Structure formats: C-alpha cells, structure tokens
Amino acid sequence: MIPVAVIGASGYTGLELIKILLQHPEFDLVYVAASEGGTSTDALHPALAKLFSVPVEKADAAEVASKAQLAFLALPHKTAMGFASELLAHGVKVVDLSADYRLKQETYEEYYCPHVDAKNLPEAVYGLPEFYREKIKKSRLVANPGCYPTASLLGLLPFIPHIKEGSPIYIDAKSGVSGAGKKLSASTHYVNINENIFAYNPVTHRHAPEIAEKIDDLFVTQVDVNFVPHLIPVTRGMLCSVYMQLENKIDPIAVLNDIYKDEPFVRIRTEPVDIKSVAGTNFCDIYAVRNGDSLFISSAIDNLLRGASSQAVVNANIVCGLDEGLGIPLFAYVP
Amino acid sequence: MIPVAVIGASGYTGLELIKILLQHPEFDLVYVAASEGGTSTDALHPALAKLFSVPVEKADAAEVASKAQLAFLALPHKTAMGFASELLAHGVKVVDLSADYRLKQETYEEYYCPHVDAKNLPEAVYGLPEFYREKIKKSRLVANPGCYPTASLLGLLPFIPHIKEGSPIYIDAKSGVSGAGKKLSASTHYVNINENIFAYNPVTHRHAPEIAEKIDDLFVTQVDVNFVPHLIPVTRGMLCSVYMQLENKIDPIAVLNDIYKDEPFVRIRTEPVDIKSVAGTNFCDIYAVRNGDSLFISSAIDNLLRGASSQAVVNANIVCGLDEGLGIPLFAYVP
Amino acid sequence: MIPVAVIGASGYTGLELIKILLQHPEFDLVYVAASEGGTSTDALHPALAKLFSVPVEKADAAEVASKAQLAFLALPHKTAMGFASELLAHGVKVVDLSADYRLKQETYEEYYCPHVDAKNLPEAVYGLPEFYREKIKKSRLVANPGCYPTASLLGLLPFIPHIKEGSPIYIDAKSGVSGAGKKLSASTHYVNINENIFAYNPVTHRHAPEIAEKIDDLFVTQVDVNFVPHLIPVTRGMLCSVYMQLENKIDPIAVLNDIYKDEPFVRIRTEPVDIKSVAGTNFCDIYAVRNGDSLFISSAIDNLLRGASSQAVVNANIVCGLDEGLGIPLFAYVP
Amino acid sequence: MIPVAVIGASGYTGLELIKILLQHPEFDLVYVAASEGGTSTDALHPALAKLFSVPVEKADAAEVASKAQLAFLALPHKTAMGFASELLAHGVKVVDLSADYRLKQETYEEYYCPHVDAKNLPEAVYGLPEFYREKIKKSRLVANPGCYPTASLLGLLPFIPHIKEGSPIYIDAKSGVSGAGKKLSASTHYVNINENIFAYNPVTHRHAPEIAEKIDDLFVTQVDVNFVPHLIPVTRGMLCSVYMQLENKIDPIAVLNDIYKDEPFVRIRTEPVDIKSVAGTNFCDIYAVRNGDSLFISSAIDNLLRGASSQAVVNANIVCGLDEGLGIPLFAYVP
Hints:
The structure is a homotetramer. Helices cover 29% and strands 23% of the residues of chain A. Chain A is an alpha/beta fold.
C-alpha cells in the first residue's frame, strides 16, 4: 500500500477524495488535514459516521512528508502553491486540485494573482490523462484540470484539427451547485437556485483561458474561446454544449470513436448525453452531431469526480505506476 | 365586455388562459371546451376549486360563434387548423397557440404535416407584438409564436443588422418541463428530469425553421440557425443563450435599449438574466455582452405565459383594439 | 384609497406585501421602509423592475404617521414591537407579521425575550380571521399568525371539541425553504436542502406554544401539542399533518364542511391536499380521514401568503372595514 | 464465487441489485432476466454502458437452477410468488423483494390477492437482519421487507416495550419518487411532484399491516398503527417520523444505543437525521427525542438500497454464510 495524504478535507472535493481513497486497493489514506485542524473527519462530514473517524490536522508539510509519499491538495488557489512547493521540497509527490499549476505563469497572473512557485511551475503536468498520459507518468506534480475545462476539452479537442480556420468556439456550460463549494453566498441560497437558471461571468470566467491554452499547447492553434457558464438547480453534474464551425463534412461520431476507442473513462454516445448517467463516476460521456458546417458537441461529467477528485486519483494512479482505473468510481447515481 | 372562448382547456396553456381571462377587465370567458368535453373546469384543474366551476364542452364551432367574438385555440397542431377555419367561417376571431399558422405552407409541410387550411394561412399574422404589432391590429387570425422562438427572436432580432455576413447563429435553449405538456412520457418522469439535464432533438427541432423564417421575413436575410433545446429540472421558465459573430464593435446593451425603449414587456438587464424574475409574467428579460467579434445574448421568459398564454392575450387585446397590457400578468413568482 | 406603509421591505414577506398592495383596489402603498434604507424597491427586488421603483426609507414612525393610516410590519421579532408601539402612539393602525403580539406576555417571554410593549399587548388581536374575525374588526393592532400555526390551527381547531380527553396532538409539518428567509445559513444552502429532508427543532419549536395557547383561548382546553417541523426541497408551500385521537366516531369531512361552509379562503378537499394547489394564494386546503379512533388531518397553505403576507392584507381589509377578499391572490402557481 | 441470478432487471431495484452484485467479492452475477427478455443490461440501463453488457433473458426457472444457487426476485407481487415456488422446487435459494412472502396468508390475502404458494409461505423469513438474523441464517426463502416497514420498524421496535398500553402509533413517512418505480403515472410526472408534497393512501397503505404484524410477531402486542406516506420532490431517500406515547420517562437515545450497539448498518444520531447522509448506502440513521410522555422518532434510509436492494444482498450474504457486510454500499451520495 502507498501512503497518501489529503490536504483540504473540509470541502466537497476533499470529501470525495476521502471516499475514493478509503475504497482504493493500493492507496492508504494516512493523513488528513484542513486549514483549521482541530476536528475529525466525521465531525466535518457526518455521512462518514461509523466509516472513518480520524483527527483532521492543521496541515504541516514535514509531517506529511514523514507519513505519505503523495499528497492530494484540495486547497483554494494561492494557498495550494505555497504548500505544494514545501511538499515537493520534502520529496512528496503532489496532485493539486487547485488552479495554481494549470496555466503558464503569465496567463495565471493575468487571471488569478502573482505566482509564488515559479520554480516548480514549469514541471507541472496538466492532468487530463487522455491527452497528457505519458507526461503524467513521469511527473511528480500534476495540475488537476478544472471541471469546466475537463468536460469542454474532452468534447472539443478531437475536432480542433477540423475547425474552420479563424472561426470561434462557443461553450455553453451548465454546472450543478456543488461546483460553487460549501461557502454561503446569495448564489448558493436554495431559493435563488431552485426553479431557476442563469449565466454567470459570461465570457470572462477564468476557465476560458485554461481551455484556450490547452488547445494551443496540444495543437499549436490559437482559437477564440467564448465560454459562458450557467448554474442549474442540481447538486452535481455538468453538461457542456460546444458549438463550432468545421472545415470539412466529417462524421463526428466516427471522429470521437476513433480518438477515444481505447479510453476507459470516455463513452461515445449516439444520443444526447445526460448528467445522471455520469454522476457518481469518472466517466465523460460525449455526443456530437453536425448540421451543415456547424458542429454541436455535448459532454457530461460529474463535476466533483471527473471534474476534480476521481480524476485526481486517476492521475495519482498513473504517477505511482498503478493501473489507472484502480479504485475509480464507475457506477452512476442512477436512478 | 367582449365574450371570448378557450378551446383546449385541459392542458397547461389552457389553464393559464383561464387564469388570465378570469382576471381580465374586458374579456368575458363565456365558453370553455376540450377535446373530450363532459367535465368541468375545476375537475380538470383542482386548483380552480371555489374559483371557476363551469362545464367543459366538446368544442363546436357554431356554438362558439353563437357565444363568443374571439377564441383562443390551445389545441395540438393539425387539430387547431381544422377548427380555426370553421371559426373564421363563422366570423369568430382566432388566436391560435399551435404551430399551424406560424410558418409558410412549404415550411410547415416540411416540418409538420400537410396543411388543411391553405385558404386562411396567408392572412395569419405572427403574434410577436414587438415586431408585428401593426399587422396584428388588423388581423382576425393570429399565429401565437412558439416559446423557443419568442425568447430567441426577442433576443437576437435586434442584432441581425449587425451580424457578420455568412456567419451562423447558435441557440442553446433551456426549458422547464411544463413545456412538454401534461402527457406522460419517459422524459417527463420525475426521476429522469430531477438532478439531470440533457439536450433533445439537437439541430433538428421544429422551432429552428420558425426562427429562421421570421429573421428572413423581417430582415430579408437567410441566416444559418443552429438550435439546440435542453430540458432542465424546473417546472416553468425558459432561458435562451444565443451566440453569434458581429460585423462591428457595437455596444449590445445600447442596441437593445434603443430598440425596446418603449416596449412594455421587454426589460433590458445589465446583469445576466434569470428565469425566476420572469416566471409568472409576460416579461422577456434580455442581457447581452460582446467578446471581441462574438456576441452572447441571454433572454428569459415564462414558457407558458410569454411563450404561450399571456402573449396570446396580449395579441387578443391588440386584435380587439384594447390596451395591450390589459389584464396581463406582471408580478413574478419570486421568491 | 387608504394610504398604507410596508415596514421591512427587504425580505420575502415584504416583497409579497408589495406585490399584493400594488394590485389592491383600495390600498395605496405610499411608504416603503427597511432597516437600512438608502435603496429602492427594484434594487432590493429585481423582479420589480419596470413595475415599482420607489425609494426605500429608513423607517421613521412620525413619517409613517404623516403619510399612512395603516402599516404592515415585516420586521424581525423584538424590532417589531418597538416600532409598533410608536406607530400606535401616532395613531397608525398596525398589522404585525412578527411574533411580538401573538402570545400572552409570560408565554412570549419564555420562548422569545422580554416584552417591551406590555402596554399594547393586551389589545392585540390574533389575526386568524376564521376564528377571530369579529375582534379583528374592532382592532387597531393585529398579530398576524405564524405560518405553522395558521396551517395547523385551521386543520385541527374544528376537531378540538371531539378530541379524546387527555390525549396528545402530533403535528408533523413540512415547510418550503422560503420560510427560513433570505439569510444565508448552512440550512438554506442549496446543496444541503436539495435531494434532502430533515426535521429541525423537534418538539421545541416556538410555534408549538402559539398553537397550544390559541386552542386554550378558543376552547378553554389545555392540549399537549407535539410539533415537529421539517424543511423540504421546495421554495414555497407548507403541509401540516396532524394526528390525534377522537372521543367519537365523527365524519371528519362533515365536521370541516360544517365549520368552514361560509369561509372564502378555506377549501375542504375529499382527497389528500397538496401545496401546488395553494402556492400563490391565500387558500388553506384541508383534508381529513378517520381510522378507528385516530384522526389524520392534512392542511396546505402558501407559507409566505396565507402564512404571512396575504393573511396580513386580509386582516388589514377587515380592520379597515373593506370586503376581506379585496385584492387577495386566488390563483395558484399551477402548473 | 457463488453464482447468483437477478430476475426482474428492468426496474430501479433490479438496477441497484446489478450495481451491487457487480462489485461484490463473493457473488457472481451469472444470469439476468426480465419479464420480456430480448434485450441487454446496458440497453435497459444506459448508465451501465462499458460496465456490464449481457443479454437479459425471459426468466426460466430451470435455466436459473442450472446456473445459479441463489436468485433475487425484483418482480411485481403476485408474479414473484409463482416464480419463487418454481425456483425453490429446483433447489434455488430465493431472496424475494416483493410483498409476496412478507405477511401471514390471511393478512396478505386481505391486502393483496389470493396467495398461490401457501406451501412455502410458512417457511419464509422476514429479512430485517437486526431482528431476524438467526432465522435468516437457516432460511432458503427470505421475504425482503418493504421500504416503509424497514425505516419504520427500525425506528419504533426498540420502543415497543415502553409504549403506553393501548395507545396508537402514528407514522408520517416521506418517500422519494423512485419508490413509485419506473411506471409512468400522473403522480410521477415531473410537474406534479416538483415544488409539491402530498399524502397518498393515508391510513390505508398496505405497508401498515406489514408493520403491525411484525410488531406483533416480535413483541406479541397488537398496536394500532396509523401510517400515512407522502411523496416528496426527491429521487431517492425516505424519512419516517414516528409519534407514540410512552409508559415511562426513558432516555430514547440510550434505548437506541443499547439495542443497536453492535449493528453495522444502524447509526444512532444525536441530531435529527437527514436522507442525504444515507442515500447510496445500506445505513439506517435514527434519532429520537422525548417530550413529556410523547416520543418522536426520525429514521432515514435509502428507499432503493436499505429499503430494497442492498438489504436483499445483506440477506443473501447471511443466507450464504458470508460476512453480512460483504459488498454492501456504505458511502453516501454526499454532497
């Protein structure tokens, strides 16, 4: 068993990490920390009663290093990079669920804040296994993708070679409210979400540059990405609708099947996808249809799993040389 | 008081018509019919108990004509046109909520079925008051727009003069489940909708040609309309996200304010719109923002009111020479 | 027109009061205040855009008195009684939606806090029109009932004469989340409510003594009231299930019909009631069935309307000598 | 590995059985049947794509017997008993999820229909492990309890020794809609459930005699059970509120802790329970509080798991001499 740590256990992604790791055949969850410490796992998450009751520590890098070989960071951005650099210095491998190592320094600093770990940033690998698997294998610092970029990129990347030159991409994304975290705010108040839907941060959300940068990184193409997220009245799940123009009259299902034929966690559907079939799993379900020169792609993931915690464990599996499907949730919360 | 009839009282739009007409200061609801007859209004709709209990007849055109000057048809398409032609022959004005008179004959027959009232079709006026008000005034046959076209067209029409030539329009629409009607089906089963979202009939929904045809009718421009509707887990309300490319760097809010400045039922918002603020009303709330050459428009309506019944009563007000706001619901179901 | 004021406009009940009063044929809403002031009605409630945009003042009793004859107080308890006593001293009639005048002083002080307006408390009338109508007519200070007591009392009071002596009453109540107000808290966070249900404050909620005291006041009987409220994943509506033991084998529907036969806002149902049929209205729908010596009563109201704002306007109608149904919402948010 | 069969794979409980059995370390799911046959598991349940694609047969007892040692029957009542008797004759052990073997013959025939397997009925054991574990061990025919009786009995049985003689029990139960199954009906239509709550079959539901009979069976006491189920707008989960009168001033939490201290699937809570903490698991969470002589008990389960499929697998584990927790889901669908 490989000893691992979860740093940032109080939020939803921390809870999901714990749930997956407790059922994982090769990872042994030996250390759990949160920003405050002084509590226990089942006090933080009452659903863990009778299942997992251990102290939640105030995170300390030396202590992590003394116990664990790999740490999952489910911390807010900015906090994460400070802690990651310490862990790396102590020889602990890191899978970071924050935004801190996902972007080039200049992009990061434009959209977030000054970067405090420029030293390690260049060696971070973007943890989208379908496109960065070989690099992840050799990495000790994985930047786990954002939920919106995961669903968007898995849907649209196969079609970048077919995009009409100079044409924009439009991504209309819909996310369950758990993506907004546990924090209290008007936009997570039940009354404001229930029986409602609305866009937020249209064309200015920070996941747009993440998507654009990865397209550029993989295909050396600069595409105009227009990204509009919406909150929908569901707790978990994310659906991304992508609209783009094509150069040729390709068969989109054939393109998808070709690229993803050996991928264990992508399912190509011949009917529009839904979020219930992926909620609770690491799957990304994808459907696409062409209308003349236009393409519509619909991709669905569980925002907390494929969009965060289960993808993080897949990355950890790869980093540690394990089968990447070990301990990864597959069975959807259906019905 | 002007005597009016509701034909097709058993569905949701029939119920909404009844609720509006019972509170209307100038219309007197004197005749209520449904395909079957043999029941009463409060048996069909228990929420009407103690409020409106009259017999629901099996619809008969001669009887309608003997009692009412205007009839609202909330019937399925195909049934509507058969009945409308009889009513018109009897001198009854018609506001038809079905699709039967919304399209040119060739378009209709391509997407629906053979048209059985080609005689009256040419004189039907499309009941989107903001763009067809003068024609509605002189009409005796109003084709009430579909819910998706209402929300989409009100959002995008102001920008058609600014569209980049040859570029497509993408409409990502989200509808509450009441739009699917009372009929039992797998896609209205609670378990399939709750905690879920999915597209249906992507790029093939019959409201796409309705949108394209009205753009052409008003601006003599053929635009490639790509329309993808989704079902969301709410009962009522509809949000349409429109994506398009612009010729010039216009200020979209200024464009909207300019066109709709005198319109009583359109509200231009400077923040993304939501459906709760319009549910229960005839308002269409619109927001738009530009990102370089790309435009994102977000419009929200109540699918059963502005998308059907309250817009129908506005049209009836106009047809009858009344103030178009008479008896029209304005106060949203908030919270 | 009778000039009236709303004090406490920022919450949900304040909004509902405004919506009703704007459509009321005899009340003229001339003054709107909130604890802070310095804003406007449509800034507080964006759904009021284009409908009602007036300044929201910091409440001042003298100014209210100079403009209005009657004030609705939608303030937190404790704040309400301080302001009410000032208004009464200025000759303004008061309908208070808080708990401050609902209970006898000793009961109030046991469950809330010291009472600061003992002078006016004895003349306050409990605003449940079906049982206190004659007293309300002569009152200048109405204590509008709580939402739970309204639904519970309307259901159970008709059966108090038939209760088995010494037997307890059990009330299992289910409330929509709007009852918890706009305030942010873990128990109004979307994720904690959605796909969930739970009891809160079981057998210790402050509405239990309100129910018990009114039973005693009306029937001179002390009944052991066990009250357990639950939050359910809906925004508005409340269902109260009452269980009790009977002395005799009465026909419960006949008992209800007999007592409520002339009441405009109570509907006796012969099938179990639901909240959708009353949401958006002032109706209380009631059903009851006997099982041997046991009785099950199910009553449904809109918690913000019959449980607060529309009942308050009914009380104001009565206080002002108007028809009590004037301007009261009747048509449910169905579908 | 022990070969097992699922008969009745098309419904929700069939799907849950499949999901559990595919992850079970000792059971090998070798045969899947449904009433119609001629399909495959992933055609019936698209969420099983890439996970489990085998033919779904038309059920045949001889074929089951040739392949499996134990069969789970997720069939409608009446169909189940016909098939169970055949399986038993072929030497196959049966865990029956229907009502067919839960009741004494006379009770069954009063509430359901004539019993066609009176021969095997007497040897059926009621599959509530906490109270029938020893009998289940020796059984070859387990009658899996209904969801409502499971939650109700686990909550109230510990208090039967303390009930005030002759006093009734009131059970106010709230169930997610998945309990009503996949069948289309007005009461599973999204629009009728969303933003709604209502009782159904009050005091006449067939689960009341199941509860009463088991109380009598275990404590030789006839208690007047008044059972009122409600549908709530959630997909899965069930909360049962029980109200009863006590003989003595017991400490209810102490009573519960005492009885369930060694039970792996019951958690005693010191705060009111919620359904999110048990959804997705086999846990029953229980809370209770006393108010004078009255007791309020609140118990929560996942209606499809502890109320059906996971409890069935626990029973199969016991019947087969395995650890009863093998392969049983423990981690809740939280958030």
